Amino acid sequence: MLKIGIIGYGYWGPNLLRNFSANKDCKVLKVADIKQERLKLAKRNYQHIEVTTNIQDIINDKEIDAISIATPVDLHYEIAKSALEKGKHVWVEKPFTSTSKQAIELIELAEKKNLLIFVDHTFIYTGAVRKIKEIVEKNELGDIIYFDSVRINLGLFQRDVNVIWDLAPHDLSIMDYVLNKKVRAVCANGIANYYQYENIAHISVYFEENCFAHFHVNWTSPVKIRKMIIGGNKKMLVFDDLENFEKIKIYDAGIEVKNQNDIYKMLVDYRTGDMYSPKVNQMEALALGVQEFLESIKENRKPLTSGEEGLKVVKILEAAEQSIKEKGKLIEIN
Question: In angstroms, rounded to a whole number, what is the distance separating the alpha carbons of residues 112 and 85?
Fold first, then answer.
């Protein structure tokens, strides 16, 4: 049975403790946080665990096999590096690191130590996103033409990152998982209305293939929207994460162009057919993520959301931030 330590018991920490504790293949030994009131809450709900305000108590504990890191992103690299150097597997919340250089260093260190890195792109483990991946792989939508995402709300301003680093990792990770296309370049625009970090932004992603993705993120919207549209040349898919039942809808809709050689004689036909909503597995995504993490350690293989997947997202975030600073300049990604 794997022994787990959790560093960070703020917003997401309680969910991690609950799911790791519920899994029969591991046991949580210690939880660390800088605030005593959070640790008291953890101890109240899980009396068997040890709590500490010193993260080194977890990193230096020889009995602990893996560490889950749920701290602000600017601490991810330092903590993960220390854990890996002590021979521990690491689970890191999104986004993986603050820079791609940090991500690469951690990946190389993990490989050198024969350890695993799991990046908590939770949405990849949802039944809805798994179903979307299945639909795309079966070519039901045809060739993907565009990927359009909106994630907006009247939300919490983060003290250490802008809205891109806070909200966009969710949908960028879904895009990478579902489309599996090589990103060529990124451009972005955004504005900071209240303090130094942008609260609203638009990101455009260009691929090697003839496909385009767009992301709208906003902390200052009067309405909450979590919607994604994937357009194919056969059918189109809408994913609304706020829907309780019909989260995915597939539309037999599209465009057919005739006489393309002469634009003045070009005829455009619009096809509107039936819509259906496929059944989606409702099991909690975080529980599936925990199981994938534990199984990947047991089987000595990379998890579905490994450091490499985390690095892809960080590269896009990094490029988007640079583009905003340069007024929407197109930034190429290697």
Answer: 10
